[in-house]
Amino acid sequence: MNKAATSFALVAVLTALLMALSLAVARHGYPFGVTGVKRLDGIANADKFLPLAAVYFFASMLMMILPLKAASMVLLNAADTIHWVVIALFATIVGCLAARWAFGQASAPWALLDWRFLFVAAIVGCHLAMNELRRNILLRSLSFAIFGGATLACLFWSFRV
User: How far lies 26's CA from each of 29, 37, 129, in Å?
Assistant: First the structure.
C-alpha cells in the first residue's frame, strides 16, 4: 500500500508539472502548449478504466480457479500490471486536474466526482484483498461468480446515464 501511494503521488506530481508547463506555454500563444494539453487530456479520461477493469476482473476470475502456480503467473503478469496501470492512469488524471485548478479553472476538481472512478477503487480494493479471497474455498467460489459478473458488465454494459 505504501508503494502504491508513493507511486500515485509521484506520477500525479510529474503529470501536474507537465500539464502546468503545457498550459503556461499555451497561455503565451505557442501551439506546442496546446499539443501538450491535448495529449495529456487524451489520457485523462474516466472511460479508460472500463476495459482495464474488464481485463483485471477476468484475470482475478482465473486466479480463483487456477492452481497456485498458474494463478501466481496470472497475478504477476496480468493483474499486478493492470493494478499499477490503473494507479498511474488515475494519478495522471489527478495531476492534470490539479494543474488546471492551479491555472484558474476552478471547476476542474469536480471532474473527479465521475462515478466511473469507482472502477479504480474496485480494482485497487480487489488487489489488496486478493490473498484473503483465495484463502477460503467459499470466498473463492463467491469471488469467481462476482468477478465473472463484473467482467461481463464491464465488457457489455454501456454504463451510460
Answer: 5, 8, 44
Per the listing, cell 480457479 goes with 65
- Tell me if residue 60 falls in helix, strand or coil: helix
Residue in 10, 114, 139, 118 with CA at minimum distance from that of residue 63: 139
Q: What is the pLDDT of residue 161?
A: 61
Specify the 3-state DSSP secondary structure of 30. coil
Percent of the chain with pLDDT over 90: 68
Length of the chain, please? Answer: 161
Under DSSP, the state recorded for 76 is I
Helix 2-27 to helix 80-102 angle, to the nearest 10 degrees? 40
- Residue with cell string 472511460: 47
C-alpha angle 131-132-136 in degrees, rounded to nearest 5: 115
Q: State the Cα–Cα distance between residues 132 and 42, nearest whole angstrom.
A: 36
Crossing angle for the helix pair 137-156 and 49-65, to the nearest 10 degrees: 150
Three state DSSP letters for 81-124? HHHHHHHHHHHHHHHHHHHHHHCCCCCHHHHHHCHHHHHHHHHH
Instruction: Give the pTM.
Output: 0.89
